[in-house]
Amino acid sequence: MSGPPTVQRMRPHDPVRTRALHRSRLDNGLRVLVAPDHSAPAVSVAVVYDVGHRSEPEGREGFAHLFEHMMFQGSANLEKLAHGKHVNACGGSFNGTTHRDHTSYYQVLPSGALELALFLEADRMRAPRLTEEALANQVAVVEQEIRRKVLDNPYGGLPSPFLQAVMFDDFANAHDGWGAVERLRTVTVAECRTFFEEYYTPANALLVVCGDADPDLVRELAERHFGTIPGGAAAPGRRGAGPRLGDDRHRERYHPGAVVQALAAGWRLPDPARQDSEVQAVLLLAEVLADGPDSVLQERLLRRDGSVSQLGMVTGLGGSPFESRDPDVLALVLFLQPEADLRSVLDAVYEELEGLAATGPTPGQLAGRAAKWATSWVRALDPLGVRAQRLGALELLHGRAELAWQLPDRIRAITPAQVASAAAALAEQPRRWVTVLPEAPGEPAGASPKAGA
């Protein structure tokens, strides 16, 4: 096919929402997941590849993100930027995101444009345009992104990208997924082709379609547009769990733009592959600890001690629970008051963990937290673009897209004793944290992080 298919006339839609999931696999290994929802005449199409920051070879930090940009620079039958023009022309939106263990490309369009979306994704899976001009252009774009979000940002998006280096020792887990500009400038088109051939194959990908789409039609169109692409093989991951935490570790980062001291502390999360209650208990523990003015740490550190001005907790460095494989991190970020002592604040956090381990939250406190978590989770699934990405991550990484619908009930089933047990497990882990401080006297601007005692 030399050009994209036409957008079909939208048929009357059936206002029925379903949680049914339909799975199939093409002969070339491409997995297909369809989640019908006929409540609106719209569809989201995502292709999720099993490659991310933790797949990068040493010396090529940031390569996965750079290559994501290259996938928008034209393909077998489309010129540079044509993908986006076709999506925008029918009123749709599109984007791509790189995570620790997966890279996702998605678009949301009217349901009559389903075949167009499948053609566009298949065309770049078949043969993206990897040219010297495109590479130079995208290195410059990524450089500006790194400067804006990391180098020129005093707090650099805490907890990432600095907390990984104190939480892990192996390269796959400890390195910075943004990369260094000077190294990215040396990337070659040949390396891009090798990366594409290793990771961007049907056997290493999952096609997700959410919204007003018939599963049988999706299968037919997927076969038509993806079926003739050579399958390749599922790429081996470079990630590894590494040794368990054995000692306290602290690193300092000075930045001339820092106004206040900031602290990011981390704890290893339970392995989500076990799919038991331990992960859900930690998710709920994070709500009890840090969500809202009546949370344990806000009560202690903001209202009682007055040592911090702002705090937040994230369950997983991938941005959302279950968006990474093991190992992953629960992270707490604190912005301190000018006179606060960093170690005293961290001591207070561990005191509250030990207190929860001893007594646990009350059933009433826990029920309210569980209801709030479940409501937020379900609300986040409402936009089709987010739903397609989340279902894709759950299916690709854990083989369980159904978790998107099951997690709220699993969260509500967690007991105070389970939360207390989760708090005890965290309190027993060694202390690993990073601090961001105003530039120290005599330090050059942009100095590298320094190891602390």
Short description:
It contains 16 helices and twelve strands. It has a six-stranded mixed beta sheet, sandwiched between helices. The protein has a six-stranded mixed beta sheet with strand order 9-10-8-11-7-12, with helices on one face. Helix 1 packs across helix 4 and helix 13 runs antiparallel to helix 15.
What would your notes on this structure say?
This protein is α+β, with helices and mostly antiparallel strands and 453 residues long. It folds into 2 domains: 22-226, 2-Layer Sandwich (Cytochrome Bc1 Complex, Chain A, domain 1), CATH 3.30.830; 249-452, Cytochrome Bc1 Complex, Chain A, domain 1. The protein is built from 16 helices and 12 strands. It has helices at residues 63-70, 82-89, 114-126, 132-151, 164-167, 171-174, 181-184, 189-199, 215-226, 277-290, 296-304, 342-359, 363-380, 384-398, 403-412, 416-427, and strands spanning 22-25, 31-36, 42-49, 93-98, 103-110, 205-211, 249-255, 262-268, 308-315, 329-336, 432-438, 450-452. Strands 1-2-6-3-5-4 form a 6-stranded mixed beta sheet, sandwiched between helices. The chain is globular.
Question: Strand order within the widest sheet?
Answer: 1-2-6-3-5-4
β-sheet strand percentage: 15-25%
Principal-axis shape: globular
| Count of extended strands | 12
The helical percent reads 25-40%
Q: Give the termini separation.
A: 62 Å
CATH topological fold name of the largest domain: Cytochrome Bc1 Complex, Chain A, domain 1
Number of alpha- plus pi-helical segments: 16
Mean pLDDT: 90
- The CATH homologous superfamily of the largest domain corresponds to Metalloenzyme, LuxS/M16 peptidase-like
Uncertain segments: 444-453
Class from secondary-structure proportions: alpha+beta
Query: What number of structural domains do the residues give?
Result: 2
Report the biggest beta sheet as strand number plus sense, adding barrel if it closes: 6 strands, mixed
- C-alpha Rg, in Å? 23 Å
How do the helices and strands follow one another from N- to C-terminus? EEEHHEEHHHHHHEHEEHHEEHHHHHEE
Q: For this structure, what is the CATH class of the largest domain?
A: Alpha Beta
Family: Belongs to the peptidase M16 family.
Domain Peptidase M16 N-terminal: 31-147
Pfam families: Peptidase_M16 (PF00675), Peptidase_M16_C (PF05193)
Protein name: M16 family metallopeptidase
